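Hey,
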Amino acid sequence: MEETLKILVVNDDQVDRMAVRSALTKAGVQMKLSEVGDGNDAFSALNTTAYDCVLLNYRLLDQNGLSFIQQLRSSEIKVPLVVLTGEGDEQIAVQLIEAGATDYLSKSKISPETLSQVLRSAIRVYRAEMQAALAIQQLRESHEQLIRKNQELEKQQQEIQMQNFKLLEASQLKSHFLATMSHELRTPMNAIIGFSQILLRPKFGQLTHQQADMIKRIFNNGKHLLMLVNEVLDFSKLEAGRLDLKAERFDVSKVVNLAVGEMRSLADAKNLSLLMQTDLQNTLIFNDPVRIKQILINLLSNAIKFTESGEIWVEVKELPANRVGIIVRDTGIGIAPKNFKHIFEAFWQVDQTITRKYPGTGLGLAIIDSLVRMMGGKIFLESKLGIGSTFIIELPRQITLSIAADVPALQLDGDEIFCSGKNSHTSVISSQ
């Protein structure tokens, strides 16, 4: 169905108005036609009704068409305008278009076909211009929104950076506090342990059974507290990147034997079997023996703590690509799969309550994970609830060194590692 157009004819000549009406009717234009004779009536009509097009006579009694168009556009009234000019008025067409007219047509050329064509063309052009203007406005608004969003994002980013800075500062303060307090606590703890050890020696006097039991408790609790303090100190150093590895060539089987020997009494106290197996063609490796022993002590301590009955195995074996594997397996309570991703997090424990059955700082596995990564190795966990857990550590036979200027270069001869010079036995590896 053809659209019905609302058309306003502004012309003070009744004959001209009739000619326009007749031409549009003959052209078959579906319309609602309104007619006014001067500019004031035209303004009133345009302020109250939305028209699809205005057919304006250039020469009006009260003003000319050019001033009317300028007044109309300054009033922000938007409507397509077709100016009907007389003979000799064609030369002002450019001024009319610049002033805001959509098109013009000479009265002498008015016919149903030409008027209909000019009318519909003017409406199409106007509507296309309005759509383009709307699109530009929407783009402008979108651009302004993007600018505001970018400003908000920049502000949020600055706030996040400030928060990160504060968190980093707080973390550094925490690490410094932990390191300082741990260091200060070690001195009195070592004194407590040392003096309680001295009191237990027979040459310092005979103790009653009750006295000996109390001093043994002081000694054992002191050692346990010192172990916790050392864990906190190691963790603070690792977190601050200040813990160094002191690498040397050593027999890994002997270090494993020492660690197992130190933990055997705790296993015996719980009636647990502590077994060890070494299957290495060459037991010499280049690493930090103190930290290797610390890793084993922590793993065995956890295994004994969480195992009520059964056995604990320690295995050292050859791996491909010149690597060594250290495996600690137990028949303890096991770890649920949902906790695998948390098990190496600092201060994390399966039971987080203050009344938990198993004591500890929750730093042991976090320290192990950090040390293994410093050594260029990997750690894996296999576990089932109620059956037990297996920790598998893979380490390179020779850890990577950052060779300082005063440290002689290493020379490899097969699996043997040799150093020359006065620093041949110990080199320092900085944390990566």
